[in-house]
Amino acid sequence: MSIVWIILVGFVVGLLARAVMPGEQKLGFILTTVLGVAGSVVAGYLGQAIGLYQAGQGAGFIGSIVGALILLFGYGLLTKK
Description:
This protein has about 80 residues and is mostly helical. It has one domain. The chain is built from three helices and no strands. The longest helix has 22 residues, at about 30-50. The radius of gyration is 13 Å and the shape is globular. The mean pLDDT is about 85.
């Protein structure tokens, strides 16, 4: 059941990150979910690196959105024409 929650929260985080980021991002349902889950992972690693989170502690909801925004910004740089 926890995998279902990870997917649902990842999708919501991905949607919010896409809504906050200016411009148009052409990502489908699956990539939006992957963006949210990966944003949470990035936020966890960055939070541990700067001392906000302890080892094994997950990132918060807002931290996950910030991590997804970082990934979305990088994705935009890679796909920019």
